[in-house]
Amino acid sequence: IKILYFAALQEVTGCSSESISVGVDSTPKTVYRTLNNQYDLPNRNRLKVAINDCFCSWENILNNDDTIVFIPPVTGG
């Protein structure tokens, strides 16, 4: 799958995207847990998640070639 990073997540990971292999029945929640072990990411409770440009649940099952975006809160005026 491909993962896109924006804002604070891009700063923490040092990249705008990466591709990783995931197991059967992987979800955004399990992927984020794995990435958090690698990068020490912010608490996921403050993030939204989208698969293939559609907001979704953290429990959605991922498919080959999916693109995940973890979306941090937007601030500003």
Task: Tell me what the structure shows.
This protein has 77 residues and is α+β, with helices and mostly antiparallel strands. The protein has two helices and five strands. A five-stranded mixed β-sheet has the order 2-1-5-3-4. Strand 3 (48-51) and strand 4 form a beta hairpin. It is globular and about 30 Å long. The termini are far apart.
Short recap of the structure:
The chain has 77 residues and is of the alpha+beta class. Helix content is 25%, strand content 22%. A hairpin with a 2-residue loop joins strand 3 and strand 4.
Anisotropy-based shape: globular
* DSSP summary, beta strand count: 5
Spatial order of strands in the largest sheet: 2-1-5-3-4
Largest sheet: 5 strands, mixed
Q: Which labels suit this protein?
A:
globular; 25% helix; alpha+beta; 77 residues; five-stranded mixed β-sheet
SSE diagram, text form:
Elements lengths: L1 E3 L2 H7 L3 E3 L8 H12 L8 E4 L2 E2 L11 E5 L6
Parallel strand pairs: 1-5
Antiparallel strand pairs: 1-2, 3-4, 3-5
